[in-house]
Structure formats: structure tokens, C-alpha cells
Design a protein that fits this description.
The protein is about 65% helix and about 0% strand. By secondary structure, it is an all-alpha fold. It is elongated.
Length: about 425
């Protein structure tokens, strides 16, 4: 369910995707070792003390084996000193553990730890300086460079927040760094699904950088109408039924309907953006409103309908229909603030009855990919779109900006 499915960059970046961790690839660290995801505080001292006592030996015995003094071992165990790097493999061999285990370091993270790290960084972007959070997240990537699910999540984190950088130069550098990480995953990760995700994220980044030629060359062959890849979903549903796994088949079927529904709306919004100046745009709005109403998307997936309201407001600005533009924009701002403050989550409804269980079973996080303050600020940024210049003198437009400031949008973003 976390696989990237060839959608437009905007719709994918606004949707929650948490990649699953392959448990077989995890480093199994003994429950006795103190695990610590804070890279600045590896628990070497406590582990030396624990392992020595577990063996039932004195500090003198360990010191004699390593050719150091008892005082040195005592300082290591109390954190007053650190062993020379050449002693680490000797100690690891003596205690029959890896150097990573000796130092309390996990090369791989669990799915839960990855999600927690993502959410922690996402919230931090609204609480600390952008530069400070980027520095911390870069260190996290270095620490877990071979934990590919974690690297993919950091790529998503940076894509969701790169535009908070103060200068265009800084933003472009982050996008270049993302490309390098995507290529790192593609080249070295043995998980076909994660490699596919990295390829999609790489091309999202290319789109943001304007590298459309490279994007087309890589993605166009994948969407040839004669490719059979799209048949996989139907085959899997039938296979579940044939094996008598009705529950699993039903959950997967619901998720596919849900996923394709969001893709339909996302692709239609992209189509609307291409037809802001003609009748196809009006018909797209009419059809989308029917789809949204039929599937009750206002409640099921409000983030998607917020994107629709925003794009419809742009359409009406181009068409010179200020009243309708303000109506859609008001719904975008006020509904957006309400949903954000209530806490945007993925959930089902009376039709998608098994979708939440599917999310739980596959460990899909149901919370927003960006912090509340960051999202509120982004709404303010959206009001700065050049097409809204025709509304600048309208009292209702100014009232919306004031409303957003009162609700938490920053002064800088709203002008």
C-alpha cells in the first residue's frame, strides 16, 4: 500500500506514504543492549559494564585481556573516558557481539521507529529553524544510510519541506541531495518495491527542478497501454478469493477502489490546471463535484477536496468570475483550518468499512506528513498565487487573509 503509483507530484506529496520495513533485513540486537536512536548518545559505557558483569568477570580481567589498566576500564564504564578505536573489535570479539551491538547502535530501524522519526522531524519544522532541522535530518540519513525504508522517508520529508528554505539556491541544493539519495536507494537496495518508490520520488524531484526531458524518458515507457502491470491488482484479488481469504481479498479490493478514487480526483485536478482558460475546465469541475459528492470525499479524504477547491478558485479567477472564486477560496481556507486543527487522518466510512484495518495491518501512518504550523503557513503561501491578484482589492479576500493570521498562519506568508 505504500508503493508510489505514478501520480502527479502534488497529489502524491500531499498523501501519506510510509514505506514498510523488511523485518528479515533488520539487525537483531539483543534485548539487553540499550537501544538509543539519538545518534549523539551511543551507550557504549553502559554496554561494556553490562557485558562484563554478564560474563561474571572483574575489571581487572577485562583490562588484562585488552592490555590496559583497570583504571582505564573503570573510566570507560563510567563515561569518563573512551577506549581507543583499536580496542573496539577486540572487546566485541571477547564478548561475542558485533561492534554495532557493543556501541548500542542499530543499523536498521523498525517501521514504528521510522514513522516516529518522520513525525518528529515534521513537527520540528514548525518549532525550530529550518536550518537546524535540516542539519539533524541530514545526520539521521548518515546514521541510517543503509536503512533504505528510513532513507525513503527522509526523501519524502525533504520533498514536503524543501520549499521552507529561505533562498532558491538552498532549495535547489536540497532537491539535488534528494536525487542523490534516490539513486543511492535504486543502486543498493535489494527491495524491488523500495527501488520503485525511489524511482518515482526521483522523477517528482526532476519535475520540481524542471528536468522534464529526463522524467519523460524514464517514465513514458512504463505507461505504455500494452503493459500488463495493471493486471496485477485484479489477479491478486481473484487469488485471495480462490484461496478462501475473503477478508484479505475484501480489504485489498477496498484499498484499490480507495486508491484509484484518489488517483482519479488527483489526475482530474491536474487536468483542470491544464484547462483553466477553456470549457473543459468547467466540465471537469462539474464532474469532480459529482464524484466528490457520490463518494462523500469531504469527510472521507478532505485533503483531496481542499486541493480541488483551491484549483477551482484559480479557474474562476481566470474566467473573471470573482464571486465564485471567492466562494471556493473561502471553503479552501476555512475548511482547511478546521480539518488541520481537528487533525487530518486517514480513515474509512460506511462504504470503506475495512480500509482502516488495512492501514493498521500494513503499518500505514494515518497522520499528516507535515506539522500543523507548517501546513497553516502553506495555506498562506497558496493565497500568494499570481492568479489571485484579481481578488486583491476584494474585502472578502482580505478578510480571508486576516482570518488565517488569527488562526495561526504567519504574517510573513500572508503579506
Amino acid at each position: 500500500p505504500s508503493r508510489m503509483r505514478g501520480r502527479g507530484a502534488e497529489s502524491v506529496l500531499s498523501t501519506l506514504f510510509y514505506c514498510e520495513t523488511n523485518e528479515e533485513d533488520r539487525v537483531q540486537v539483543s534485548q539487553y543492549f540499550e537501544k538509543e536512536t539519538d545518534m549523539e548518545n551511543i551507550k557504549l559505557a553502559k554496554n561494556i559494564s553490562f557485558l562484563r558483569k554478564q560474563r561474571g568477570i572483574t575489571q581487572d580481567v577485562l583490562a588484562d585481556f585488552l592490555g590496559v589498566t583497570k583504571a582505564s576500564v573503570s573510566k570507560w564504564e563510567t563515561g569518563q573516558g573512551m577506549p581507543d578505536i583499536v580496542q573496539l573489535p577486540r572487546m566485541a570479539a571477547y564478548f561475542d557481539v558485533s561492534i554495532d551491538e557493543l556501541m548500542g547502535y542499530q543499523a536498521q530501524l523498525t517501521e514504528e521507529e521510522i514513522q516516529k522519526a518522520y513525525q518528529s522531524f515534521a513537527l520540528a519544522f514548525g518549532q525550530k529553524s529550518f536550518e537546524e532541522v535540516m542539519k539533524e535530518s541530514r545526520q539521521f540519513v548518515k546514521e541510517y544510510y543503509s536503512c533504505y525504508p528510513a532513507v525513503v522517508q527522509m526523501i519524502l520529508l525533504w520533498l514536503n519541506h524543501y520549499n521552507l528554505a529561505k533562498t532558491e539556491t538552498e532549495q535547489q541544493q536540497i532537491l539535488k541531495d534528494i536525487l542523490e539519495l534516490c539513486e543511492h536507494v535504486e543502486l543498493h537496495c535489494g527491495d524491488r518495491g523500495l527501488c520503485s518508490d525511489a524511482m518515482i520520488l526521483k522523477n517528482m524531484t526532476r519535475l520540481l527542478m524542471g528536468e522534464t526531458k529526463e522524467l519523460i524518458e524514464e517514465l513514458e515507457p512504463l505507461h505504455h497501454p500494452q503493459r500488463l502491470e495493471k493486471q496485477a491488482e485484479g489477479l491478486l484479488i481473484q487469488a485471495y478469493q480462490m484461496q478462501g481469504e475473503q477478508r484479505k481479498g475484501n480489504m485489498f479490493n477496498q484499498y484499490m477502489i480507495y486508491s484509484h478514487l484518489l488517483a482519479l480526483v488527483g489526475d482530474s485536478i491536474a487536468y483542470l490546471m491544464q484547462h483553466l482558460g477553456d470549457k473543459a475546465g468547467e466540465e471537469t469541475i462539474e464532474r469532480l463535484e459529482k464524484v466528490i459528492d457520490t463518494y462523500q470525499l469531504e469527510k472521507l479524504h478532505p485533503n483531496t477536496t481542499l486541493q480541488f477547491k483551491y484549483t477551482a478558485a484559480l479557474f474562476y479567477c481566470v474566467q473573471g468570475q470573482k464571486e465564485r472564486a471567492l466562494e471556493k477560496l473561502e471553503r479552501f481556507v476555512k475548511d482547511g483550518v478546521r480539518e488541520i486543527k481537528a487533525g487530518i487522518t486517514l480513515h474509512g466510512d460506511t462504504y470503506f468499512t475495512d480500509i482502516e484495518e488495512y492501514f493498521r495491518e500494513y503499518g500505514i501512518s494515518k497522520t499528516a506528513p507535515r506539522g500543523t504550523k507548517t501546513i497553516l503557513d502553506s495555506i498562506g503561501e497558496n493565497l500568494q498565487h499570481p492568479l489571485f491578484a484579481v481578488l486583491a482589492q476584494e474585502p472578502e479576500f482580505e478578510a480571508l487573509k486576516q482570518y488565517l493570521k488569527q488562526e495561526g498562519g504567519t504574517q510573513d506568508e500572508l503579506g
